[in-house]
Design a protein that fits this description.
five-stranded mixed β-sheet; two-stranded antiparallel sheet; 7 strands; globular
Length: about 775
Amino acid sequence: MNPPTWLRGRLGVLLSLGPACAVETLPGVPALLLAPVGLWLLFAAPVLLLRGSTDKVVSTRSGSLLLAAGLAVLLDILVALGANTVLPLLGVERPLTRLVLASATTLVLLVLGILAPQSPRPLLRGAPLSGARPVAWAAGVALLLSVAGPIRLNNGLGGAVSTTALVVVTALIVLLLLRHAHCSPVVLEAGIYAASATLLLLTSLRGWYITGHDIQREYLYFRLTLGGGFWDISAYTDPYNACLSITLLPVSIFRLTGIEDIYVFKAVLPLLFALTPVLVHRAVRNVAPPLVALLSAVFFMAFPTFFTDMPFLGRQAIAFLLLACAMLVLTDSQRPLPLRRAVFTVLLAGVVLSHYSTIYVIVGTLATAFAVDKAWRPASRPGRAHQHRDGRQGRMRTFLTWWTVAVPAVLALLWAGPLTHTGGQLESTLRVVASDLFGSGDARGGSSDTRYSLFGGAGVTPEERLAEYREDTIGHTRADRADGKYLPLEALAKYPTPVAEKENLPLTPVGRALDTVGLSVPALNGALRQAAALLLQVLVLVGFVIALRGRSSPFTPVRDQITLTVGALAMMGLFTLVPQLSVDYSVLRAFQQGLLFFAPFIAAGALWAVRRAGRRALPVLCVLVAGLLLDLTGAVPKALGGYPAQLALSNSGPAYDIYYPHAEDRRAAMWLNQRAAGDDLVVQTDRYSFSRLQTLFTVRTQDSVHPALLRSQSYVLLGSAPTRKDEVTVFFRGDLVTYRYPRDLLDTTRNLIYSNEGAVVYR
């Protein structure tokens, strides 16, 4: 008697594990073979074996696969953590080798394959693929351009291909909106994934080295873990080192796949994060019509933080992926509540291991939602009878309970406290927040990103922020300056550091045509960005109100979506009103995280706004979405000029100056590293040159060259932007400020000892 199809499939996976493990342990295996085998062991095989378990947690086929993908990522982290914890007790000093990780992964998968329940549903057979052809063509072109565009820019060519990629992505999303009723869920989700991956890769693939902000430091701690073959939090008690999403997970990927380490960060992690909008779609689809679910994913992708910041935030990308899985579990009411709560908590435990700030914000959101639910319940009792009559009682049953809030909070405190001792930043933030709230602080403003909020005010000007920075540096160095360790303030008085003028793209022919009729293109671009930010916030509020009223709302949210939205908006308000919170955790990142909860309300607000167009409502909606995407992704400013260039589209602009790694900088750093070896002098460089070069330095380095911080005796390395443009950028209290650097000061007080026409070193 032949075994059923699902058993043959499982048996095939189990039989593949032995040969895969053998390939991993053989020396000299070519990368072309090692990469697919490693990806199979890390992601594909776990997903296939976990499907039986996830089928019991969520009711849809795509939801089960997506949840299995999130759990596979968490499983990879836990396998590496287990090997790293247990094997040293048995005398294995380097547990994070390919042999150990491949063997441990294979063993865990064998146990999983034997013990886990089996899925009776075929993987893809029988899945409808209506509407696939045009979506597949658009998706394929977008993904091709997402790789070709950055390669051209990295080779010094123009950004036309990358700009075309944005136009194709917009066309793909409009196609999905117009054809959503005729496309199967699999096709819609494939299109969403392609659009998501394209937007992320256009940014993440910029540069031939690690490019970006936080990713530089993430890569540093990954390299430290990789080099030692062992993750040791006691060696570097830094919150970054406690994020296993950027230490253990990339080490496992690198070891088992052989993919070049920089592309683990530049490609693999972004492609994993690209699943998040698909999860948003699937989670909302559990409780809303297809159009609301699709719009929710689109608004999540359209927010600029998604494609400008998230490619450089590997730890937060993995945390958001797991949080999106948790929301998928929360909204699928077709499965047993206790099991869903348990899996929800496990996923949030994964967030604890992935990123400290994300879990803190989640705990605050959950606690607020739980409190709102407790207050709401007595008020809603008189109207509960009709819920029983219309059969929606299950939809109004509360998912959150005290332990789904308490367990993640306790785990976060344990992980940051006794387990890793990395909670210093949280403690420092809470002290400053208390000082701000009770009036004993210095009353300085928070990040100027709050100006995008409906309640954020005008923010702080660059001149004011730079003056604060200078005052702060002088205060911190006063005692050492008196001892002669820093240059005297009198000597610095004749070397001012004015704020640099904002550099905009030159006006294009279209921009010049608008300018000739009296329309200021820079002002227009700024107004469009501000209007887009305000529009999203207004749509949240409108969608929330009409969803509560229930009469004209395009969907009926579950109770927890309402309370979690209140919690997320409360956290947004707190970040806007308390300056230190906006400094330590970006308001824009907080909004991106909030979209995991309130994106469907934005979608509902947008549909309500176009409802009077009648049969033309969908075309009007497509025009609105297309305009929003083209503007926020940078295609419109690129077509007009008069706006700072974006890294994904140009080899210029503020992001290019501070984040893009240049070969000249690296050569100067390696030369100086050899020159300063064994020397007592510190190497001073600007913050962003240090960020780009920190993995190369083994000597003592200080990441500031502001005149008020220049030591009397030190090496000074100026990177590409300070050398070519005489401009230096600092990051202070949540804001980037670029100022004109007085090179004459260095020429007067130092000797030029190295120059390669892109970077210079003074002594």
